[in-house]
Amino acid sequence: MQNTDNDKAFSSIDSVGQCLVDDERTTAFQKAIKVKIKKNDTVLDLGTGSGIIALFAARSGAKKVFAIELDPFIASIAKGIFQANQSLIKKLSLLIEDARTVSFPKKMKFDVVISEMLTTGMVDEPQVRAINNLHAKGLVDASTRFIPERQDTFVALTHAEYSLFGVNTSMILHLWKWHNWRKLKLKMMSPSIPLNSIHFNEINKEKFTAILEMVAQRSGRINCLYLKSKSILSKGIVVGDTEALNAPMLIPLKKTKTITMNQKVRVKVAYIFGGGYGNFKAEIL
Q: C-alpha distances in angstroms, 42 versus 37, 196, 211, 240?
């Protein structure tokens, strides 16, 4: 089929705008940048979006900030925002590149790496692969400061009434806090336990597999998993569920199970970081 201009109409601009106006998320990154960036630092901003993070870095004393954006349309918006901040523009370099494969001269080292390609469980966004790329190419070392430093994810056994608007709607859902989810009648069937913890100052395996033992805190039927994450930006600066970041995830199970209180339940979870929910596998053993 021949491409037309209309084929390019959909873009990620909405999520970029939501991140920008998410006061809790954006303010937390601003605080962490002020703490972590030192005068004359060389900074890399992966997935710059609106460019606000790169501007914070430049304003906090960085000597040079390289802002990476894959989407040419989004990059053009960031460019316009950079140009509207003339006092900082000499410090900024915008590159239309894929953060997962971007390269720089071999002798280059980044003092600070900032990346907000974050999603719950690191399932959708490619931040793990992008940071691994930097480590593999020697662009970061033990002295490099990362924002965020790590992301922790937790999981719980859950029951949900997957009946919305009178129809069965069993599907993966982002439970954004600004939506009304009362009709799902969520019941946490177990306490949340750690699923994984990703430290960005080291190389992380991109394929994740774990067998978890969870203890029921009530009797009933398990039909889904509840995932939640928190991003540790810096010491004392932690971002959990905001309007545009780390929305809890509800993931339906193909096979459900009826359990009794205090029963031990083993669950296998396997997925690829950044591979999308199409590759997320979860089953009760």
A: 9, 30, 41, 28
